[in-house]
Amino acid sequence: MLKERRIGEIAFYAIDSRSLADALKKLGIYDDVAGGRTRCYFCGQPVAVENLGGLFKHEGQIRIVCNSIKCLYEAAWLTARRRMQQRQK
Ligand SMILES: [Zn+2]
Fold this sequence. Notes:
- The chain has helices at residues 17-27, 30-34, 69-88; strands at residues 4-6, 11-13, 38-39, 46-47, 52-58, 61-66.
- The chain is an alpha+beta fold.
């Protein structure tokens, strides 16, 4: 499984639900996720704690990704691409 963990810049792919809940609380979005008010940034399906795949920061917003491999892959690609762009500046 994908296991990247960085809270600083927020690329967070973790399956460990306890540390995930901690991270969500730290970001202040735990209630939204627990209450089912969040959707996957890529496929748009509702994301709860059980199917949350990861988090990442994009355009100043925290985006949530479901646990489908396709969406996790897209999130990883998006954050990697942005990192490359930042390095070129
Ligand atoms: Zn998704």
